[in-house]
Structure formats: structure tokens, C-alpha cells
User: Fold these one by one.
Assistant:
Number 1:
Amino acid sequence: HVAKLQVHLGSNASLNAAEKRWVSIGLAQCLNTQGKYDAAEKLLRPLWIQLKADLGQTHPDRLYAGHQLGFALRRQETMREASVVLAEVLEGRRSVLGPDHQLTLMTTTLMVRQLRDAARFDEALALAKELDGTVARTEGQGSVRHLSVSNTIAEVLLAKGDLAEALNVQEPAFRQLTLSAPDNEALDDARFTLAEILARLGRYERAEELFEEVNVQDQKKYPPGHQLRWAALNNIAVMRGERRDFLGQLAVLEHLDTEM
């Protein structure tokens, strides 16, 4: 997909301005998916500025590009700039699309995680609970998206160090997703968060089982060299070390070395 989009972008023939910017945004989104965040940022940064001049600050195309730019900046830990970009995108999407629109909800979730990573836990929890109420009202309690919001809340509680409350939120949501959406990506995210919580609580054996399941999914989803493939294996190695299974840990680390 990336190669095809790059060919389209490099060839100006038959592409009008709207098509060209959407090819650029689509290429950047693919690069983000592949973990090539620096390349995505280089493509999106000038586009973010240019679209403001060409289309206006709150044009939906610019806001879409801004969401992808904020994502790329977060992944590179450029926290201050990511916060500024995502705050502008969230405000714009709420104004133009409304607070209940799916794209607004996506940016809200990303902003919660940005606030969490910036250790602004009270703000993150307040925004996450607002998101929880919106999704419960529009899609229903127990919907896949609503259970996914529970995961987002649990992530904040985990980062804040409130492990017992994080487990209280995440464990029932994980069980419900296992039953209602076994093939949904929301279950993969919930599994990983639950594994992290259990690891922090010292329940290493169960955490390792979940990280093993995460690893199976990540090896399917992500291409060789992707950071999340490494992260899954690293978590398994850490759990084996905590259980003093050092031979097992060494085997995982050797496999991780071939991945990197």
C-alpha cells in the first residue's frame, strides 16, 4: 500500500489538489501503522501548515491530517507539540463534527492517552469519563466501543499507580470482550492492558500467559521490525525473569535479537 501511494504521490498526472492531499494523508496513515513515525511526521508537518492556509483551520481534511500528525509526534515522545496539535484537532472536531462523531471520539481517546503520558492523570481521567458517558449514551453500555473506553480508563489508572481500581475496571471489560468480540482489535488492547496490570500486581504467571497471547496477535498484525513486535517479546522475557525462569528468558531474548 505504501509503495502504491508513493507512486501516486510522485506522479502529478490526473490528481487534483483534493486527491493529492488525501494520497498524502493516506500514505502518512500507512507509515504510522508500520511504525515509521518519523517519515509520517515529515510528510504531515508541512501539510498541516499548508492546509490551514488553503482550507482553513477547522477543515475536516486538515483535522484528519492533524490527528495523524499528533499520533506520530506522540509515538516519538514529542509530547509538548503532540499536546498542542491534538488539542487543536479535538476542539476543531467537536466544533465541526460534534462531540458524538466517531472521528471526534477517536481524537478524544488519543488525547486521553496523551494526557496520561504527560502524567496529567486527573485531566486524563476526567476526559476519559466524559468519553465513557458519550459512548454509553450513543452506542450503549457493553458495546465494543464502550468496553474499549473501559480499557482507556484502566490505562490511565495503571499509569497513575491505582492498580486495584485499574483491575476492577479492566477485568470485567476483558471478560465481556472475550465473549462478545473475540476477533475485535479492542480485545487485543484489553488483553495487553490487563497483562500489564497483573504484572504490576506481581501475578507474573497469568500476566505471562496474556503477553504470550498478545505476542501471537502482534506477530500476525505487524511487519518485521515493528516496535510492537519487539515490545510483546520483551514483556514475555521480563515475566520469565520475574519468575526466575532464566533459561526461558534467554530463549526469548535470543529470539528478540533476531527480530531487531
Note: The mean pLDDT is 90.
Number 2:
Amino acid sequence: HWAMELARTELIRGRFFAPSIYFSCEPVACKVEQHAHCSAAVLMRRLPYSTRLDRLFANADCDAITELIEKVLQCHRLVTGSLQPSSATTHSSLQSSDERLIKVVRARLGTRADVILRLWERILTARERVLPEIRARDAAGRSKQTHGDLSPGNIYIERDTVYFLDPCVAFPDLFELDCANDWAHIAVTLASMQTIFTPETIIARCAQEAQTSDHLMAYYFSRVALVRLTMRQLDQVGTHEEVGDLRTLVRIGLPS
């Protein structure tokens, strides 16, 4: 059953990043329009909402924010080193994912797609400019089984332990990318919470951690921000201010 397979995938991938949180996947009986239906759920340890990164940032001063950022970076550095290598190439995975998203945008947003599509055109141009470095990193084994969705709601810190929850499971072509993509997720997450650091400073810091050029990290940063913006537009969620903030972040990493 597809629901159980999806749950198993989430369990396996979740254990890469938070092994003590993910327990098992279990069948779930439910009703859909008065008809019995079998689904599946992943059994996890519940973490307090107060330990979620965006909640911790909301109540932190400058020194505490700096300490939280360093904890996240240190933990992700350790996790990245243990991720499984991938046989896929980052370039092919990005190409497949981008083409699919652009197709969905055109089909579902109609005339409202113009702004998003223009940004995607700029992202595709930016990708061509950094393609030699992407291919060089693929050849060096940088493509791995990455998380793929390190948004603010998926990072928790409890008693100095950082947990990365809810890895991407719906889009298989995003499972296997350059680990720099995960660093870009962290960079966008930190920038979107408007910390004491500028987005440019965060990009440079994550580029250092991922051992990439600033240009490549800026491309990944803009692409991640655009993916988040695209999903919000497709799902029609997020405030006007949040959408505007994401558009600003997309443009930060794009060449003028």
C-alpha cells in the first residue's frame, strides 16, 4: 500500500537525522466519506513545541541566537559526515525537480504564475553558471542522501541535542543532492527568521561549512528560497509579508 511505503520511507530517512526520535511505522484505520480506509503513520517521540528552532529564536537575545546557530551548524556538520553517498548526480536531480515544479506552476497558477516563472528562469540561468562546480563536486562524492527540507519547523534543540525532523519523502529526486543543498536550507531558515546576521553573512558561513564557493552557496540559497515560495503559492498558505520576504531572499543570491 502506497501509504505504508511512504511511511517506511519517512522512517528510514528520519532515522538518518534523528534516530532516537523515530520508532516505527504502523497501519491506521480511518474513514473517508463513510468508507473504511487503511492508511499509515510514523510513530515518533513528541518533542515540546518550545524546543522548535523558531520558538527558541523568538525568546533569545543576541548571544543566545549566536549559540543556537553554532549548535545547529555543528550538529549538521556531524550528520553530513555520516550521510550515505549517492549514485545519482546533483545536476540531474536538480534538473528533474525544477522541470517538475515549473510544469506544476504553469498548470495550477495560470496567469498568477508570471512572477514565479520569471524567478525560475533566473534560477535556471544561475545554475548554468555554477554547473562546472556542481559537476566537480558530484565527481568528488559530494552527492549524498540529504534531508531536503530543513525549514524552521523541522529543527528542534532539546538539552543541547539538535534534531532534524520530517525529511523530504514526497519528491524522490530531492533525496540525493549535494550536501550543500542542506546547508542552503539552514541558511534560508536562519535568514527567514531575521537574525542578527545578514543573509550574505549567513550564506558565506554556510559556504564555509559546506566547503563550496560563495557563488554556489548563493545559487543553492536562492533556489531553496524559491522552492519554498513556490510551494506556498501552490498551497495558498503564508501571509503576504512572508511571501514578500521569500521573494527578497530569492533575489539575494541571484546575479544582478
Note: The CA atoms of residues 77 and 209 lie 7 Å apart.
Number 3:
Amino acid sequence: TITPELKAVLDQYLPHSLHYVVILAGDLPPSSAFRKYAEQHEHIGAVGCYEPNNAEKLEFIRSYLVANSLRASSELVTWIAVHLPNDFASLTNELDKLALYYNHVPAEIEANVARTLLGNNTEGEASKLILAIGEARIGRLCKGWEHLERSGINAVTFIRYLMRHWLRMWQIVNAVKSGATQQEAFSALKPPVFFAEKPAIVSQLLKLDTTKAAHILEKLYQAEAECKRSYTNTNLIILELLRQLHLIVTAVRNKH
């Protein structure tokens, strides 16, 4: 929406200004009051910016690799698409790191090189921490979160990473419960599980059932709501969440 106060300022300022005013907005549907105002205003240009869909992003990455004589497995290309930005300019900047690393000569991209070079690696570090739940001691998990927090990741973003991981875990155990093999359940996941992460995921899946997986997801939703209500205590909320997840996963294992 757009407030009457902002409308008044823009209506008074724009017709006589020698400067440009740039307003960045999120997803604005056709019914949006702000979008309608911008499209109808004599002195405002409304520029639509649309993120590429997954197929376009994959095709862009493959084309870049071919143009730079680089090769990568389909699995690695998918991983790159999932973990890199959705705008082509930022995506090109990231892929340039690979071309520079391989000195612009034909090469097969190694998975560990891609994971090290691409992005700010915050999500990669978060993924390592999530996969360590149930394996590492709780003290290590807490230190891992403190490192992520210092790197700039906020509590809600980290919880979203946890949700994505445990939703996939629930999908696997639910598929197995419905009669699929574990391998079939893994193969059905989109995007696919990165091969280097699969052993840790299999370890977490050990005797995990749909009830426990749903219980974990419920705790994650509760933790996100708590973080949004209490920004000053988010660190304590995450530490307590990690403790609870650790206890749930280890209890499931010890029970069996």
C-alpha cells in the first residue's frame, strides 16, 4: 500500500525535481494500490523486475559453463542453481570465480571447489551445522550457531534453513512409510540431495518416523513465531531450539 502522506510528498516533489527518486518494492500484484499509483502517475515509471524461474537459471548456468569450457555434473549444476542468487548479474559474478580459478582453460568443476568459492558460504556453514544435529555435542552446536550469528545470519533465516531441511526429512520418512524405498524417496526430492550431504542425512533418518519429523517442524514454527515476537532474545531462542532438536534426534536413536 501507499500512505496519503507519501503520495502528497511525491505529488509535490516529483514534477519540479531535477533528481530521480528510486523506490524498491517487493511483489506487487495488479491490485496493489502502490502499483496502480505508480503506473498511472505522470512522473513515475513502474519497471517490473522478475526473477528467472528454475529452468531459466539452470540454462543460464549451463550456457555459461559451455562458453567458458567448464564441465559439471547435473547434480552440481543443480546445487549451484539452488545456492546462488536469482539475478543474472550476481550469478555471472559468482560463476566468474570458477572461470578465474580454473584459469579459463577446459576443466571439470570439482564439487568441493564450487562449494568453497561460490556465494558467501553462510548457507553452506548453516547446512553443516544442521547436518551435525544428533551427531555433534550440544556445545559444538551452540558454538556453530554463534559463529553463524557473527557472520551476519539472523535467527529467522536460520530457522528457515532448518525448516527446509526437516521438511525434506519428513518427505523422505513419509514416502518410505507409504511403501517407497529410501533411495526412491531420495530420488523424488527436488532439488536433489547433494551427494556429500547424503550420509549425514541417512544418519539423521535412522529410525525417524513421521510423528517425530512433524514434531520437529512444529517446534520450528513455534521458534520462528517467538523470534518475530521477541527480537532481543533470538539468540537464546536458537540455542534452546538446537538443544531440543538435539535431544529429539538422539532420543530417537537411543530408543532403537
Note: The radius of gyration is 23 Å.
